[in-house]
Amino acid sequence: MQKVLKYIGMLIGIAVAGAVFGVLSAFILSRLMDGGSGGWGGLIGVIMGLALGYPVGVFIGIVLFKTLLHYNGSLLLGLVGVIVGGALPFILAEPVGLNNYGDLLWAVIIISSPLFGIIGFNLRKKSAGENPSPTNGSLDTPDNNSWH
After folding, report:
1. First to last CA, the chain
2. What's the angle, vertex CA 34, arms to CA 26 and CA 51, rounded to 5?
3. Is the separation of the CB atoms in 42 and 61 below 8 Å?
4. 52 with 25: CB under 8 angstroms?
5. Across residues 65-77, what is the average pLDDT?
6. Of 16, 20, 77, 134, which one has the fewest beta carbons inside 10 Å?
7. C-beta neighbour count of 67 within 10 angstroms
8. The dihedral formed by the CA atoms of 40, 45, 50 and 54, expressed in degrees to the nearest 10
9. Do 119 and 73 touch, CB atoms closer than 8 A?
10. Residue 71: phi, psi to the nearest 5?
11. CA-CA distance, 75 to 83, in Å (whole number)?
12. pLDDT, tens digit (0-9, with 9 covering 90-100), for 81-135
């Protein structure tokens, strides 16, 4: 149960980091693009800022969990998971019909990016010295290779 709570806490934490960075990037891009594209530049900037800034913020959240809280995991696989989780809803929007429901599309993006990021972060090979027992989870042990 404690391990599940750690995963849920990490999911919420990196989703909040993504939201903060996404809103910040949406604000900046809306200001930079304001007045362009026939008056639609600000709206385009907001959409681009949220679509691109949220996954970047999610990955920043994963990096913060690894460096500050010393969680074991693969940053490279976490990055791949965030990219796949952010791109997959856009790729599948037409075949699945998500493009007809904008709110549902954004909800799937908000959930899938951190979820795939956590899955990727926790998919790592066990080193030769690690005990392969089920109690040795990646979130249960501190990272001995972290930056100090």
Report:
1. 30
2. 25
3. no
4. yes
5. 89
6. 134
7. 14
8. 170
9. no
10. -80, 140
11. 12
12. 999 998 898 898 888 888 888 788 888 888 999 999 999 998 875 555 555 555 5
Q: What's residue 76's pLDDT? A: 93
Task: Report the pLDDT value the prediction gives residue 130, as an integer from 0 to 100.
Answer: 58
pLDDT digits (tens, 9 = 90+) for 88-97: 988 988 888 8
What are the backbone angles phi and psi of residue 82, rounded to the nearest 5°?
-65, -40
**Separation in Å, CA 62 to CA 16, 36, 39, 80, 129:** 11, 35, 37, 12, 25
Quote the DSSP letter at residue 100.
G
Mean predicted lDDT score pLDDT of the chain:
82
Query: Could you tell me the sign of the dihedral formed by the alpha carbons of 12, 57, 114, 109, in that order?
Result: positive
Alpha carbon 26 to its chain centroid, in Å, reads 16
Tell me the residue type at 101.
Answer: Y
pTM of this structure: 0.76
Contact (CB, 8 A) for 84 and 121: no
What are the structure tokens assigned to 60, written together?
């920043």
